[in-house]
Every structure is written in structure tokens, then in C-alpha cells.
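Morning run. Coffee first, then this:
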Amino acid sequence: MSALSATEVKELARTGETLTVEFKGEERKPLNDRDLVLACICLANTDGGTLLVGVEKDGRITGARARHEGGTDTDKVRAVIRNLTVPPLEVGVSTAIVEGNTVLVLDVPKADRVVANTEGTCVHRVMATDGPACVAYHPHEHGARGYGLGAEDLTAQAAPHAHWSDLDPLQFERARNTITARSGDKVLLTLGDAELAKAIGAIVSVGDKLVPTYAGLLLFGREEALTRHVPTHEAAFQVLTASAEVRVNDFFRKPLLETAELIEERFNARNEEKEVQVGLIRVPVPDYSAIAFREALLNALLHRDFRVNNAVYVQWHPDRITLDSPGGFPEGVRANNLLTHEPKPRNRHLYQAAKRLGLVEQSGRGVDKVYMGQLRYGRPIPDYERSDNTGVRLTLLGGRGSLAFAAYVFQRERSGKSMALNEMIALNRLYHDRRLTTDMLAGDIQAGLPEARSVLERLVEEGLVQAKGERRGRVYHFSAEVYEAIGQPEAHARVHGMERGEQEEAVLELLRAAGQVQRKHVMERCGLTGDQATRLLNAMLQAGRLKVAGVTRDRWYRLPEVPYPPDVQ
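And here it is:
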């Protein structure tokens, strides 16, 4: 981070202290080296941040004292902090002259391991009732920090007191079936149980004994061994009514492979399908995408925080499925960057073993499958917004999808015109909202404006989307061809508008198909008001393109060469 300017320091002082900004005034008492180091440790053990020495708690800028002869040597301050912390903490140090006062500015990074001073004192920053405060950071809290940062991997560790006999031979057969069915590492099929377990890190040698790792127990452990050695491992499948009554309440403490199968069986038993005809092919459109659900379930099971004593919950509601996984997103991952952040599994050892078994996506982009499974049936994008630092919470909206939209996607894919995820997100948003701007799509695809604009212009070039307006205020809509393909030809007129020639041709198409029309039919097909439809029909009458019969409020229009039936004259 570059040194802060005087203006930036004044703005921080005006805004006040936060979890990542701390003030240390020296108006009444100089700040000694020990307290300076502890203030840096406090920020480093939380989220990092900025320490301003020479700013009082109320934001007044009173200035920092000179810490060395002739002033403050920033290199010496940096060295003091490095020498008095374990592990050594590297802090950026600079000064800024604000209102004639010197402010010492320390840029403290977020530590990837817990930091203490050389005396063993360890603190972190919390939000107390009267504002941010530095409090003791107890040893039992340290493990969760390293786990969340990815610095530790519980699943790679040997389980104390566990034995080879705690692993179930039936689960190894289940793993081999998974490898065969899901394109896992076929080399593993040639190995015996112990060799397979060694190959994927399910066991390690401790002296002359084979000891299961936590990953090995989670994949192959007997149920009683899992209960004993990994008591936090549990998953639940629940079915709830609209009034939140629980109709099904099944809990599992079985190994992960079996747990996933049992929950999938319950999902499949309730996942109904409709069918849509595409040419000679009948395409099933389920309530929920089986692929999306499977990936979401495996993410919840494999990436949960096993240090948290809570179950993975899969809840089937009348209109949605929710999946709750204990522990927040890994460090750096958030609900608004899931699509663009590099894969960052919390339990890397377990995840790598699952990849070799073929259980999860080899590329590490399982979340893309969750999105694509929802989008291809015309449903809203997956919703992770309820997630926080205690759990990842996903909502999949289900029920009846768009048969026409699903048929359109299937037809394009069948003709070799498959769409990338960002393009599918854009089409899905247009299907639901009728209009789309670059700003709107940038938020949906979690990318910048240039990438969003590129996606939309690519769809324009393919003839799927039309644009209106200048570049900065451009609005995008489905093209007439897409609206026709999804069975909503009149929507193009309502959303995009028609030229007069297009309106007249649309009326003639209606007449050729139906034989006769009334004004209300023209209003619906062309997206016109009553007065606009009347003016259009009168113009076509004067041009001799139509003829009319009936009184004003019950007029019928036909092509000139088509006779009226007696009851319409």
C-alpha cells in the first residue's frame, strides 16, 4: 500500500475508528514501543488495517512525538515491530504532515498466522458496545483463524487414536463404483484398499502403523468411528410445508460418499419433470437441475468447516431448495465474486481426494454447474446472499420452469451453438426482466463493464439481442427471432417497439393465421394502445389492405380477398 496523503489521513480521522482503522493519540501520554507493537498485532490478527499515531480517539489531529533523535526514523520503527513480534510482522511505515502536525502512519497487513509479541501476549480487534476495542486472543480461537485462511487443513492431519480397522471395506467398493461411473482416476481401480487409501491420502504411516487421516475417515470411515473421531460431521435432509411444518427430517452421520447418495435419492424421488417437444425429441424439464443440485450438495459437504459443531442442512420447500453449510466462505471469497475468484477449497486434502475419485468437478468450477443448471431452464440465478461468516447459504428457486426457454436452449446446443455461462446469464436476465444494461449484467456476471459490454455485443452479433440508444445509455432486448422461438412474439413489440411497416406486416400475419381479427388482437400483437391500434387499422383500410365488418365496438377485420361468414357481416 502506498503512503497516505495528508488529505487521506484527515478523511480517516474525520470518519472515525473502525475494525481496520485505529487511532493512538500522544497528547497526554507518549506511546511506548510495546503498546505500538500490540496495536499492530491487534490489527494483524483481525483484518489488517491502518494505525494512525498522533490522532486522538475523538479524531483530533494532535501529532506524534519524535521517536528518535532529530525526528522519527520509519525504518527503525519498522525494525522494532519486526523484532518484537512472533512470527515477525512486516509493517509499512510512513509519515504525513497534517495541519502542521506529524502523523505516523502504519499500514498493517492481515496476518496469515496468529501473531504475538515476544512476551507471548496475543490480542485481536473486536467490535465492542462502545466501538472497536483490542482484546485478548485466546489459544482456543487460533485454530479457526488458520483454518479459515487456508493455512491449516484439518483433513490432511492424522486422526489421533484412529486405526485402519475404523475404515469400512464397503466404502472402498462404493468409491470404486464412483470412479467407474464418474470418470475418476482409473489407475485407482487397480489398487487394493490400503494402496488406494495411501494414493489419495486417506491414510498415513505413523511408525509401523497405518493411521487414517480425517479425510480418510470422512470418505471411508465406519459410522461409529465417524461419530467418535469427527463428531461435528452430520448432514440433514428435511422437507418443509408452506407453513414450515417438517414432514421429513432425516439425519446422517455416514461417510460422505454414502451421505451424498442418500440425499440424492431423496431429491430424485421428489424432483418431478415436465416435457417439451423439440422436433421429434421430447426434452424433460425437471423442477430442479439434478446436476446443479449435486454440485451444490457436494460443495456443502466437502467445503464445510468441520470445527463448527453444526450439520449441513438440505431443506426442500414448496418453491425452493436451501442448502446451509457451516463456516463462511474461505478467505477472499464472497457471494459477489464466486464466479470470478479462483477455486479455494477450505479442506484441500479432502477435496483433492474427492477429485481423484471423480466425485467433484476436475476443473474446480463446480459453482459454474450450479449456475448453468438453474439458468438453462429459465430460472433465476442461484442466491448466496444469505451467507455470512458463520455459514454458506444457497437458495435454488425451483418449481415449474420455462418449457419454451429450455426448449430454445436445447435446440441451440443440439445445433452446436452452446453458450458460455456469461452469455446464459445475460439471456436469463433478459427472459425475466425484458431489458438489460451493461451495469446490470456486470453485477450479474461479477465482472467489469468492459467484459459485460463484450458479452452483450457478442449476443447482438449472433442476432439474439438488439440494442437501443447510445453507447453509454444503451439498453438491450431480445431480438424478434428469440421472442418468436420462446413463444412470445408479441413481447418484442411491447418491449422493443415496431416500425409502421413491421406493424402492418404483423397484422397481415395475424389475419393469414386466424382469418379475422379485432382491435384487441392488434394491440396485443403489436404492443400498441387502443388509439394507436385504431389509427393503424384505419390507415390499412384506406390503403385497401383490409376490409371491415360490424359496428364500431365489435368490428372484425379481414383480408380484402377473404369473404365474411354471414354472422359477421
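The chain has 21 helices and 21 strands. Good start to the day.
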